[in-house]
Amino acid sequence: MITMDDIIREGHPTLRKRAEKVTFPLSDEKQKLAAQLMEFLENSQDEEIAKKYKLRAGVGLAAPQVNQSIRMTAVLVPGPEGEKPEFKHVLVNPTIISESVQKAALAEGEGCLSVDREVPGYVPRANRIKLRWYDLEGNEHIDRLKGYPAIVVQHEIDHLNGILFFDHINKDNPFEAPEGTLILE
């Protein structure tokens, strides 16, 4: 089981490397990693388990964050209370095929399990994306995401490219976003 102790933090060189493409079929080791990444997200979103193991809540966890420099990430965007998740997948070799000109940013900014400090500011990202990814069996999927799920997936793909969320924040004026940016509450 992955805990906060397994997650590498800002400053670790793996977080700034471009992760290697994954080949199929997945090894048993990679299958296990995929299951553990998703298990962490499920546990982190369960109040009792999170409290017991001192887990910070997360909606995404990329393999590089546990010091595995491969293009794999788990995403678990919860749905409305008591309903199925809005987007729940382990994405292998995800690629953004196209993105909207319209930008969006979270009103409260973004956080990251690998960053133990608050970094205030808007993180402008595409409001809509068309995503190509592969499941654990190597089947191709194409999804169109918008708003919060699109932002989460872009944050995770950044991890696969050695980018951290605060790299996108305007250094001179953190709460200045490109004109027309949707600010999501």
TrEMBL record:
GO biological process: translation
One GO MF term attached to the UniProt entry: metal ion binding
Cofactors demanded by this protein: Fe(2+)
CDD domains reported for this sequence: Pep_deformylase
Active site, renumbered: E156
Catalytic activity annotation: N-terminal N-formyl-L-methionyl-[peptide] + H2O = N-terminal L-methionyl-[peptide] + formate
InterPro entries: Peptide_deformylase, Peptide_deformylase_sf
Family statement: Belongs to the polypeptide deformylase family.
Full protein name: Peptide deformylase
Cofactor note: Binds 1 Fe(2+) ion.
Residues bound to Fe cation: C112, H155, H159
UniProt keyword Protein biosynthesis present: yes
Superkingdom of this protein's organism: Bacteria
NCBIfam families: pept_deformyl
Keywords: Hydrolase, Iron, Metal-binding, Protein biosynthesis
EC number: 3.5.1.88
Gene3D superfamilies (alphabetical): Peptide deformylase
Protein purpose: Removes the formyl group from the N-terminal Met of newly synthesized proteins. Requires at least a dipeptide for an efficient rate of reaction. N-terminal L-methionine is a prerequisite for activity but the enzyme has broad specificity at other positions.
